[in-house]
Amino acid sequence: MKSASGDAPPSQDSKPSSMQYTWMFEGNNAPTKQLDALLRAIAHYITREIGDRNDPHLTPKKLAAFYKAVGGDYDSLFDKDDHTISSMWQLTGCQHSLQPTDNDYAPPSIPALTSRGFSRWESLEILLGPEEHVPFLQYAVKNWNLKNLETGEVFPSDLPKNVFPAQPDPDVDRWHEDCAANLWKEASSEDLPKVTKSEPTPETSSGPKFAYPKNADGHPGRTPLDWPNAEQNAGNTSSRKPALART
């Protein structure tokens, strides 16, 4: 049950927290155990409390609702066709399943991240755009009474931004551009709609207004998958995997 404000009330079975936040990434850009646990807690909350509560899967609709809840608007990304989103997650190593559609005679095709896949997805997004995604996490921790799914310990509501990178990681950014070029080539070869760059619009609801800060040149920050122009990446199809790939 939620409070009148819409935020989750304290859980009676939560353990008092003595947790302190530390730097959230390993030297190879892998998320620490603490960040992984936090992101899995957010994934668990999304499946139970965000969007359609009868759907326990991290589908594109659920994720779009999540980003709106924390102050973003990524509808233009998650409105893309199922095949494109599944290919995007496959190329970036985000574990996911395919869920059935309303057509009982059609094969499963709706992509849905696993908790592990969501942890990797959001870890990448933090490394690509900490100025956007760190506030998203801060809002979730402050308002949703998240707890470690293994220990039951509550994550402290004050998540400092100095435990995250202040700037995008250049190596992950270059790898990300390679993935974008590969996705564009796949879409072109299969005659699928091309993934195009779109600029988000600021959140206009009563939620937090910190989404999409301006860059130094006055333009909005990058979107979750701000795929570069494919012509600029022709021939740039490196198979290098991101440093945060898990075994």
TrEMBL record:
Region forming the signal peptide: none
Region (Disordered): 186-247
Lineage: Eukaryota, Fungi, Dikarya, Ascomycota, Pezizomycotina
Biased composition (Basic and acidic residues): 187-197
Domain DUF7514: 23-180
Name of this protein: DUF7514 domain-containing protein
UniProt organism field: Bionectria ochroleuca
Compositional bias ranges of the Polar residues kind: 198-207, 230-240
